[in-house]
Amino acid sequence: MRWVGVDEAGRGSFLGPLVVGAFAIDSDGVDGLRAAGVRDSKILTPAARTACYDRLRTLGTMRSISLDPATIDGAVARHRLNDLEATAFGRILGGLHPDEARVDACDADPARFGARVRRAGGLTVPVRAAHHADRDDPVVGAASIVAKVRRDRAIAALAARLGRPVGSGYPSDPETVAFVREWLAVHRQPPRWLRRSWATMGRVMPPPRARTLDRFDP
């Protein structure tokens, strides 16, 4: 049987994409994932994640979908971020043709999230959704590594394009917040790589420049 795990990285990030990662493997190979070092990506160091990612390339099939900040902001404005994620999960699963799907649930109700994913992907196979699936299920753990490594690479590419470090991209990271505050102080307008809908914007967006009376037209 072909099992496919799906997880995301970057949902709570302030800048850069949300990356949905998937990992497909034959069920008789699942026991080898733990031996390959698969764990929840959040508890692995960057070096360990990269090493495990390289080993996973020889064990199964990797896929990912990247959702840009504008797409995320649009979903947040409609209170549909969970739906956006479920749609992306379903889309990536539909392209991998699983016999069984296993996903990390972002919804408070895992069964509801699994049903959304199943509908979004037009799937007829079981979709097993659970909280902490990236920790408890090695197939989803492998997907979390795919998502995290590819998102880290996207952040590194953004930093290279901007010509300076941007931190992890999360609003809890002082380096990220300092970078965004400095960038906005110069450019004044939020760029395409920044999520405008996040509450952190209220802390880092500079106040509008005051207009003096001599700048008003008579």
> Which spans of ≥5 residues are poorly predicted at pLDDT below 50?
210-218
What is the straight-line distance between the termini? 76 Å
Give the count of helical stretches: 9
Regarding CATH, which class of the largest domain? Alpha Beta
Question: What is the CATH homologous superfamily assignment of the largest domain?
Answer: Ribonuclease H-like superfamily/Ribonuclease H
CATH architectural designation of the largest domain: 2-Layer Sandwich
What is the general shape?
Answer: globular
Describe it:
Helices cover 44% and strands 15% of the residues. By secondary structure, it is an alpha/beta fold. The protein has helices spanning 31-35, 46-56, 69-77, 81-94, 110-120, 133-136, 138-162, 174-187, 201-204; strands spanning 2-9, 18-26, 61-67, 100-104, 127-130. It contains nine helices and five strands, in the order E-E-H-H-E-H-H-E-H-E-H-H-H-H. A five-stranded mixed beta sheet has the order 3-2-1-4-5. It has two domains: 2-161, Nucleotidyltransferase, domain 5 (2-Layer Sandwich); 162-204, Arc Repressor Mutant, subunit A, CATH 1.10.10.460. The N and C termini lie far apart (76 Å). Mean pLDDT is 91; it is low at 210-218.
